[in-house]
Amino acid sequence: MSRAPILNPKLVPVSGTDAHLPPVPLEALQPQALRQRFAAPPAWQVELPGDGGRIAERTPAAAAVLVPLVLRAEGPQVLLTRRTAHLRDHAGQISFPGGRVEPEDANVVATALRETEEEIGLARRHIEVIGRLPVYTTVTAFEVTPVVGLVDADFRLKLDDFEVAEAFEVPLQFLMTPSHHQRHLFSYEGGQRQFLSMPWPHGGDEYFIWGATAAMLRNFYRFLSA
User: Fold this and answer.
1) Considering the domain 12-225, what is its CATH architecture?
2) Does pTM top 0.85 for this prediction?
3) Which residues, 6+ apart, have CB-to-CB distance to 97 below 8 Å?
4) Domain extents for the chain?
């Protein structure tokens, strides 16, 4: 693989934001509006179908993640996880719950629900699956289907301490506002890479949402704003 890895994305210069794009209206983020959008989707174009390459020697593998939209009084919140620091792949990164499709899974929806329950203890009885977003292909050859679900707020989480360091919520309205979408340009000997980030400042800390997670959220923005 010829592409240089991005070891610390926070240090990669920001080349711009997308403040010129309109946010998704608040009324379009309400549960019934989201159900209707997936039930009768508009014509739209995926902006980011993948990382822009893949490791040649790896066989493509199907995977799925859940995009959990928690129904809070103040508006839908996206439930995200921070991976533990000792993991071999994507240590410490912000991600959706999910993983590889296993032979016993009936489909990608079953994968997303199973992995969510295993990783953070969110039982499927709390989740109403309303649709899917297009497959996102990672450089590590995973073909990831984002499954979107509405989550009632009456749940308790039980994190898998080996994989998940933390679970937290970000307002969907924040993530569907392109002025919060930063574009980064990573230059290395032999080429350049671009990626998006959506840093979420909260409680004196910053959750740096980037990479595939940010890209899938950007595709969600395109779907809702079409």
Assistant:
1) Alpha-Beta Complex (3.90)
2) yes
3) 65, 66, 68, 79, 81, 112, 115, 116, 119, 120, 122, 164
4) 12-225
